[in-house]
Amino acid sequence: MEQQVRVVPDQDGVRVISCAGEFDLDTLGPLEAACSAAGADPGVRRIVLDVAALTYADSSFLNLMLRVLRTGRLVVAGPVPAQLSRVLDLTETRTVFRIADDIASARTL
Which pLDDT band, with edges at 50, 70 and 90, does 41 fall under? Predict the structure, then answer.
């Protein structure tokens, strides 16, 4: 499956970035650009990364998540797919992220 990145218009300072498909070092560019723009925007108080439709993510995807986490505004919206869940468990990084069950819940964390 080809990767897709969709940025939902901000609501109350919350920017939702939805990603679908497979992401690795070669395909991460559009998602990285969307996350960088959100991180640089002072009007964005929360960045919700919707991973529900993610089918593959490697360490470069995790690295991007960690960089966005440094903004202090990242919330991951699930459900977290099994493949990403495995990456988080193998790297013991699951507990560093705020993970919500869905986008609606992530907006309020």
Answer: very high
